[in-house]
């Protein structure tokens, strides 16, 4: 295992990912500082999901490297990679991906059980309380609203106290008000707990919750904005789409 000292929670170096004849990522150099909240934006097909999957160790790059907490992923065996992911990475999807037959509490407990731990009821209760769902522990996903399901998914992703939480359009399936609740929660993850958040979104308002927005076009970085406002993000996106046409 190669370890390098750096203040980045995740560092991508010359990252390329080719799917058959499609170049999804074409040489991306990017660092996500520890304790920061970054939004990733870009037109459909620009490589955002591919970037997130590679950065989270869910997909292997064709070339280039990914380091999480200073540990380079290239060269790790599947087993070491799985362990590292389990310890350091949380992932939230647009469609929640909860197990429908399990209660909210059981869904949240799942990552710890997979790691061979038997979590206490207090630990699960605290995780659900943190996302405002202490009173829904025994509900199955089918009896929860979309926003509540996403909050369960966030509690599940955070139960292992990962250094980095990735979200691929985590508010994409939610209405505006519910989406804002989820975004406030992600903001808290960095502000209160010092964890790192990386979120793909198409929504300039969602992106404005981040400390920084990075833009992708055709698998390459196409600028970034610090301290973004929804208006500046929207203007940047309009500019990118005009160039892409
Ligand atoms: N498994 C795959 N096999 C073949 N091509 C793929 C695969 N996954 C992604 N691609 C291609 O790679 C490119 C980037 O895809 P990706 O899903 O990363 O885009 P995206 O920016 O997340 O798009 P969207 O906003 O629509 O979710 C696209 O051209 C896509 O068709
Ligand atoms: Mg995508």
The hetero compounds bound to this protein are: adenosine-5'-triphosphate, magnesium ion
- Count every helix, treating DSSP H or I runs of 4 or more residues as helices: 8
Q: Give the CA-CA distance, first to last residue.
A: 44 Å
**pLDDT averaged over residues:** 93
Global geometry:
globular
Largest sheet: 6 strands, mixed
- Rg on CA atoms, Å: 18 Å
**Secondary-structure-derived class:** alpha/beta
Neighbour order of strands in the largest sheet: 6-7-8-3-9-10
Q: Specify the helix fraction band.
A: 25-40%
One letter per element, helices H and strands E, the order comes to EEEHEEHEHHHEHEHEEH
Total number of β-strand segments? 10
Q: What portion of the residues fall into strands of 2 or more residues?
A: 25-35%
Query: Spans with pLDDT under 50 lasting ≥5 residues?
Result: 1-5
Q: How would you describe this protein?
A:
This protein is an alpha/beta fold and 245 residues long. The protein has 8 helices and 10 strands. 41% of the residues are buried. The structure holds adenosine-5'-triphosphate (ATP) and magnesium ion. Magnesium ion binds next to helix 1.
Helix-strand layout with pairing:
Layout: E1 8-19, E2 22-33, E3 37-41, H1 48-55, E4 63-68, E5 71-72, H2 78-88, E6 89-93, H3 104-114, H4 121-130, H5 146-158, E7 164-168, H6 176-191, E8 196-200, H7 204-207, E9 212-217, E10 220-226, H8 230-244
Parallel strand pairs: 3-8, 3-9, 6-7, 7-8
Antiparallel strand pairs: 1-2, 1-4, 4-5, 9-10
Magnesium ion binds at residues 48-49.
């Amino acid at each position: 295992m190669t370890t390098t000292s750096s203040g980045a929670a995740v560092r991508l170096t010359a990252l390329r990912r080719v799917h058959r004849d499609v170049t999804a990522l074409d040489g991306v150099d990017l660092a996500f500082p520890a304790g920061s909240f970054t939004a990733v934006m870009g037109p459909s097909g620009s490589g955002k999901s591919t970037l997130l999957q590679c950065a989270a160790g869910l997909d292997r790059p064709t070339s280039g490297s990914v380091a999480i907490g200073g540990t380079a992923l290239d060269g790790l065996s599947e087993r070491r990679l799985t362990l590292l992911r389990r310890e350091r990475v949380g992932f939230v999807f647009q469609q929640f991906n909860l197990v429908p037959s399990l209660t909210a509490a059981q869904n949240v407990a799942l990552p710890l059980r997979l790691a061979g731990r038997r979590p206490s009821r207090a630990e699960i209760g605290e995780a659900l309380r943190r996302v405002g769902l202490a009173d829904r522990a025994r509900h199955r996903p089918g009896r929860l609203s979309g926003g509540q399901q996403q909050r369960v998914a966030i509690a599940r992703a955070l139960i292992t106290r990962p250094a980095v939480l990735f979200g691929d359009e985590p508010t994409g399936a939610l209405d505006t008000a519910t989406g804002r609740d989820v975004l406030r929660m992600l903001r808290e993850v960095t502000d209160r707990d010092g964890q790192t958040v990386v979120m793909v979104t198409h929504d300039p308002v969602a992106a404005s919750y981040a400390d920084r927005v990075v833009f992708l076009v055709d698998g390459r970085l196409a600028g970034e904005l610090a301290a973004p406002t929804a208006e500046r993000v929207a203007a940047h996106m309009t500019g990118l789409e005009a160039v892409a046409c």
